[in-house]
Design goal:
- By secondary structure, the chain is an alpha+beta fold.
- Helices cover about 55% and strands about 10% of the residues.
- It has helices at about 15-20, 30-35, 40-55, 70-90, 95-105, 115-130, 130-140, 290-320, 340-375, 380-410, 420-430, 440-455, 490-515, 520-555, 560-580, 580-585, 590-610, 610-615, 625, 635-645, 655-675, and strands at about 150, 165-170, 175-180, 190, 200-210, 210-220, 235-240, 250-255, 260, 270-275, 280.
- A hairpin with a 4-residue loop joins strand 2 and strand 3 (about 175-180).
- The chain binds ligand LZZOIA2V and flavin-adenine dinucleotide.
- Ligand LZZOIA2V binds near residues 192, 295, 302 and 440.
- InterPro entries: ACOX_C_alpha1, Acyl-CoA_ox_N, Acyl-CoA_Oxase/DH_mid-dom_sf, Acyl-CoA_oxidase, Acyl-CoA_oxidase_C, AcylCo_DH-like_C, AcylCoA_DH/ox_N_sf, AcylCoA_DH/oxidase_NM_dom_sf.
- Pathway: Lipid metabolism; peroxisomal fatty acid beta-oxidation.
- One of its GO terms (biological process) is lipid homeostasis.
- One of its GO terms (cellular component) is peroxisome.
Length: about 675
C-alpha cells in the first residue's frame, strides 16, 4: 500500500480526484494541525468524526433540503438530546473546540435549539454574573437543566443600544426590577432560540433607578415555566418566522408587561444595585458587552470554516467536472485547469487560511483579556474591541463573496440545494449583520484609528499600541516591490502599511478638517465615514496579512512551509492588486510594479494548482459535515446527484395532487374546447 501525503485518498474514489490528491506535496494531517492550531485538536477532530461515523443514530435521517422547518427542528432536537446524553463518550468534558466540531458534524450549520445557549448565554453568565449568581444559574445552564439565550436586539433598534426601549425600572419598595416593553418597536426581535426553545434569557434593558437612566444593563430573566414550558405571566413570546437560512434556529420576539424580577437578577459581577437603589458602576462602561465580544472573537474562525466548506465543495467538484478543451486536439479538461477557475477559487483558499490564522490570534487575545478583566484589569478591552470589530466585518464580507464565487464556480449544479451552497452562503452572510452590522463595526474601529492618528499628528507616536504602531512610522518614498533582488514579504507588508497609514491619516485629516471649519463632531464624522471605513478595512487587511506572515514564519515542516509560502505569495499579490487604487494614487507603487505583481499572481496560481485539492482536504471536513453532493470526498458526483434527485419528495409519486386537481382539468378543458 502506497502512503500518500494526502490522507483523504481511498480505493474506489473517482480517479480524477485521486489524481489530484496524488500530486499533493505535503501531509494533509500536518496541515490540519496548522489549521486547527494544534496537532492534538486536529487528531481529536478526526477521532470525533470516526466515532460519529459509527453511530447511525447521529446521522441525518434524510437530506436537510428535503425537510420542512418543523421536521428539521424535530430532527435537530432528537440529535441534540442524544449528543447531550452521550457527550462524555464522544468529546472531552467542557472542551468548547470539540463541542463546536461535534455540533457541526451532527447538527450542522443551520442552528439547533441550544445554539445561543452555548455561544452567548453561558459566556454572558460566565463573564457578567457574580460568584453567587453563577452558583445559582451557571451550573444549571452548563448541565442544561435550563436553556437560555441573549435577548438584546429589538424590532426598532439593534445597533443603537442607548435607544433600546425595554426598560428595567427599580422598585425600591419590593427590591425588584420591573421589565416593560412600552411599544411594538420595543419588542425583543431576533434573539436565537428565544422563539420556542429557551426558558431563560440574559435580557438587555435600559436600567432606571429613581427616574435616572443608567443605560443598557443585563438581567437574568425567566421566560417560561420550567415544568410546562408555557410562557410566564406578563411575557409575550414567539418565533419571528423563516429567514434566508439558519432556519433550525428559532429566532424570536419577546415583550414584557410590567414583569417583575428580583433585584438580584441584575448580573452583578461588575455592576451592582444596592437594595436602597445605590448604583455601583463597573470598571469599564462597556464591560457588559462581553458576550458580543466573545462571539465576534470566535466568529472569525467560524467564518473561515464556512468559506472553506464552499471552497472544498467547489475545488473537489472542479476536479471531476470536465467541460470544454484548452487544446482542441485533447480530451475535455477538468474545469480546474482554466486559469479563470483558479483565479476564482485559489485566492479565496489563501484568504480562508489567512482568516483562520488571524482567528486563532484573536481568540488568544480574547482569552487573555477575559482573564485580565476577571481580575479588574480592563486596559486591553479597547484594543480587543477595535480588532474584533474590524476582523468581524472584513472576514464576514469576504467570506460571503468567496462562497458566492465558489457557488458560481460549480455552474448549474451550484444552484441546486444538492450542493448545499445556498445554505452555507445564507448562514455565513448572517455574520455580516449579527454581532454588529459591518459598517457600524468598521466605524467602531475607525474611532480607535482616529484617536491613534491624533497621537501621530501631535507627536505622541510612542504612545501608540502595538496594533497601530505602524501609523507612527515613515514610509519609504516608493514601494521596493520588484526593486530589490529578492522581493520578500517584508516589502509587501511595508506597502500595505503605507496604504493603511495614508488612508487613515487622510480620513482623519478630513474629519479634523471639517471640525476646524466649524462642523459639529458627529456631522464631521458622518461626512468622513466612507473614508474612515476605508481606513478600517485597509488596517484590518494589513493585520490579516501580518498574521499570515507570522504563522508562516513559525512553521518548521519544510513541505508545509513551502506550500503555505506559496499561498502567502498568492495572498499578498492578490490583495495588493485588489487595493491597487490606493497604491497607485500617490505613486507609491508604479504600474510597472503592478505588472510584476500580476505576473507573480499568475505564477502562484499555477504553482498552487497541484496542491489545490490537498489544501482543501486539509480542513478535513467529513461528508456528513459538508452535506454536499458536489463536495463528496470520493468525487462520485453524478450518480449521487441522480440518487439525490430521485429521493426528492416530489418524486414519491408519478402524478402530483396538483396535477390531478388543476393541470389535468385545465388540459382536459382545453382539449374539449377544441372539439
Ligand atoms: C470554539 C468555538 C467556541 C465558540 C463558538 C463561538 C462562535 C462561533 C462562531 C460563530 C457564531 C455563530 C452563530 C451566532 C449567531 C448569532 C449570534 C448573534 C447574536 C447577536 O447578534 S447579539 C446582538 C449583537 N448586537 C450588536 O452587536 C449591536 C452593535 N452595537 C454595539 O455593539 C454598540 O451599540 C456600539 C458599540 C455600536 C455603540 O455602543 P454604545 O452606544 O454603548 O457606545 P457609545 O457610542 O456610547 O461609545 C462607544 C465607545 O465605547 C467603546 N466600546 C463599545 N463597545 C465596546 C466593547 N465591547 N469593549 C470596549 N469598548 C467598547 C467604543 O470603542 C467607543 O469608545 P470611545 O473611546 O468613546 O471611542
Ligand atoms: C442571523 C441573525 C441572528 C441574530 N441573533 C441575535 C441574537 O441572538 N440576539 C440579539 O439580541 N440579536 C440578534 N440578532 C440581531 C443583530 O444583532 C442585529 O440585527 C444587528 O446588530 C444589526 O442591527 P439592526 O438590525 O438594528 O440594523 P440597523 O442598525 O437598523 O442597520 C440598518 C442599516 O443602517 C446602518 N446604520 C445603522 N446605524 C448606523 C450608524 N451609527 N452609522 C452608520 N450606519 C448605520 C447599517 O450600516 C445598515 O446599513 C441577529 C441577527 C441575525 C441576522
Amino acid at each position: 500500500m502506497v502512503h500518500h501525503q494526502n490522507k483523504a485518498i481511498r480505493e474506489g474514489d473517482n480517479p480524477d480526484l485521486t489524481a489530484e490528491r496524488v500530486t499533493g506535496t505535503f501531509d494533509t494531517h500536518s496541515m490540519a494541525a496548522q489549521i486547527y492550531n494544534s496537532e492534538a485538536h486536529a487528531r481529536r477532530r478526526r477521532e470525533i468524526t470516526e466515532i460519529i461515523a459509527k453511530r447511525p443514530e447521529l446521522h441525518d435521517t434524510k437530506p436537510f433540503p428535503f425537510m420542512t422547518r418543523e421536521e428539521k427542528i424535530l430532527e435537530s432536537s432528537r440529535k441534540l438530546t442524544l449528543i447531550t446524553k452521550h457527550m462524555n463518550e464522544i468529546i472531552e468534558p467542557n472542551n468548547s473546540n470539540e463541542m463546536f466540531h461535534l455540533n457541526n458534524e451532527v447538527l450542522g450549520i443551520e442552528g439547533h435549539p441550544m445554539a445561543l445557549h452555548g455561544i452567548m448565554f453561558i459566556p454572558a453568565l460566565t463573564a457578567q454574573a457574580s460568584e453567587e449568581q453563577q452558583k445559582k444559574w451557571l451550573t444549571r445552564a452548563i448541565n442544561r437543566e435550563i436553556v437560555g439565550t441573549y435577548a438584546q436586539t429589538e424590532l426598532g433598534h439593534g445597533t443603537n443600544l442607548q435607544n433600546l426601549e425595554t426598560t428595567a425600572t427599580y422598585d425600591v419598595a419590593t427590591q425588584e426590577f420591573v421589565l416593560h416593553t412600552p411599544t411594538i418597536t420595543g419588542l425583543k426581535w431576533w434573539p436565537g432560540n428565544l422563539g420556542k426553545s429557551s426558558n431563560y434569557a440574559v435580557v438587555v434593558a435600559l436600567m432606571f433607578i429613581k427616574g435616572k437612566n443608567y443605560g443598557p444593563h443585563t438581567f437574568m430573566v425567566p421566560l417560561r415555566d420550567e415544568k410546562t414550558h408555557q410562557p410566564l405571566k406578563g411575557i409575550t413570546i414567539g418565533d419571528i418566522g423563516p429567514k434566508i437560512a439558519y432556519n433550525v434556529t428559532d429566532n424570536g420576539f419577546l415583550g414584557f408587561d410590567h414583569y417583575r424580577i428580583p433585584r438580584t437578577n441584575l448580573l452583578m459581577r461588575h455592576t451592582r444595585v444596592e437594595p436602597d437603589g445605590t448604583y455601583v458602576k463597573p470598571p469599564h462602561a462597556k464591560i457588559n458587552y462581553s458576550a458580543m465580544v466573545h462571539v465576534r472573537s470566535h466568529m472569525i474562525t467560524g467564518q473561515a470554516i464556512m468559506l472553506s466548506y464552499a471552497l472544498t465543495i467547489a475545488t473537489r467538484y472542479s476536479s471531476v467536472r470536465r467541460q470544454g478543451q484548452i487544446d482542441t486536439t485533447q480530451p475535455e479538461v477538468k474545469v480546474l485547469e482554466y486559469q479563470t477557475q483558479q483565479h476564482r477559487l485559489f485566492p479565496y483558499i489563501a484568504r480562508a487560511y489567512a482568516f483562520v490564522f488571524a482567528g486563532a490570534e484573536t481568540v488568544k487575545l480574547y482569552e487573555r483579556v477575559l482573564e485580565e478583566v476577571a481580575t479588574g484589569n480592563v486596559s486591553l478591552m479597547a484594543d480587543l474591541h477595535a480588532l474584533t470589530s474590524g476582523l468581524k466585518s472584513v472576514v464576514s464580507h469576504y467570506t460571503a463573496q468567496g462562497i458566492e464565487q465558489a457557488r458560481m464556480a460549480c455552474g448549474g449544479h451550484g444552484y441546486s440545494q444538492a450542493s448545499y451552497m445556498s445554505e452555507i452562503f445564507g448562514v455565513a452572510v448572517g455574520g455580516c449583520t449579527y454581532e454588529g452590522e459591518n459598517m457600524v463595526m468598521l466605524l467602531q474601529l475607525a474611532r480607535y484609528l482616529v484617536k491613534s492618528a491624533s497621537l501621530v499628528k501631535t507627536g505622541q507616536s510612542s504612545k501608540l499600541g502595538p496594533l497601530v504602531a505602524y501609523l507612527g512610522a515613515k514610509s519609504d518614498s516608493t514601494s521596493l516591490i520588484d526593486r530589490t533582488p529578492t522581493t520578500g514579504f517584508a516589502e509587501y507588508v511595508k506597502t500595505f502599511q503605507h496604504i493603511a497609514r495614508r488612508q487613515t491619516l487622510k480620513a482623519a485629516d478630513k474629519f479634523f478638517g471639517l471640525m476646524e471649519k466649524g462642523e459639529k463632531r458627529p456631522i464631521a464624522w458622518n461626512k468622513s465615514s466612507v473614508e474612515l471605513n476605508r481606513a478600517s478595512r485597509l488596517h484590518t487587511r494589513l493585520y490579516i496579512v501580518e498574521a499570515f506572515v507570522r504563522r508562516v514564519e513559525e512553521v518548521a515542516d519544510p513541505r508545509l512551509k513551502e506550500v503555505l509560502t506559496d499561498l502567502l505569495h498568492l495572498h499578498v499579490n492578490y490583495e495588493l492588486l485588489d487595493m491597487s487604487t490606493y497604491a497607485l494614487e500617490d505613486g507609491f507603487v508604479s504600474s510597472s510594479q503592478l505588472d510584476y505583481v500580476r505576473d507573480q499572481l499568475y505564477f502562484y496560481l499555477a504553482k498552487i494548482r497541484p496542491n489545490a485539492v490537498s489544501l482543501v482536504d486539509s480542513w478535513e471536513f467529513s461528508d456528513q459535515e459538508l452535506r454536499s453532493v458536489l463536495g463528496r470526498r470520493d468525487g462520485h458526483v453524478y450518480e449521487n446527484l441522480f440518487a439525490w434527485a430521485k429521493a426528492s419528495p416530489l418524486n414519491k409519486t408519478d402524478v402530483l395532487p396538483s396535477v390531478d386537481k388543476y393541470l389535468k382539468p385545465l388540459m382536459e378543458s382545453a382539449r374539449a374546447s377544441k372539439l
